[in-house]
Amino acid sequence: MSDDDAISSIPPPVGGFRLRWDVFLSFRGEDTRETITKNLYEALKRRGVRVFLDNDGLDRGDDIGPTLLEAIEDSAAAIIVLSPRYADSRWCLQELEKICDGGRRLILPLFYNVDPSHVRRQKGPLEEQFRIHEKVFDNATVSGWRNALAKVGGKAGYVFNTSRYIYI
């Protein structure tokens, strides 16, 4: 599937009204904000896609948590940039769970330096992150996060491994 195919396959809004955002970007800022997420955001914007990115989509004075969850609800699609430390952030996991609970929303995972099977099974770097979450959060919360990761890890997406590329 080409980038243009992915963008054109965004489902129409439910009930015919126009959603505020075409795409919600979910990512671990420390891992990807200045690299792949920045490039992806700029490429989508150049194509006229209305992209929610936390820095640009939040108005000053907004409460971050509720505003992010509202932006997810008001987005036709979500691109999830899954990186080695994505599951380290409870915010990322809460976003992901909300995205997966959304019904008809297109979900497109981008596996950035992580193996999709590790995401699906919470292995590799995600395994230790979940051990820590299990000590802090209740079973229902952690189970919801695990289910969301398993769902996204089971979707066809794009795998991007920077160790395969040589930068000049």
From TrEMBL:
| Span of domain TIR | 19-153
Q: Which Gene3D superfamilies match?
A: Toll/interleukin-1 receptor homology (TIR) domain (3.40.50.10140)
Q: Which UniProt keywords apply?
A: NAD
Q: Please give the SUPFAM superfamilies that the UniProt record associates with this protein.
A: Toll/Interleukin receptor TIR domain
GO biological process assignments: signal transduction
Q: Which organism is it from?
A: Rubus argutus (Southern blackberry)
> Does the keyword section mention ATP-binding?
no
* Protein name per the record: TIR domain-containing protein
Keyword Zinc attached: no
Q: Which domain of life is it from?
A: Eukaryota
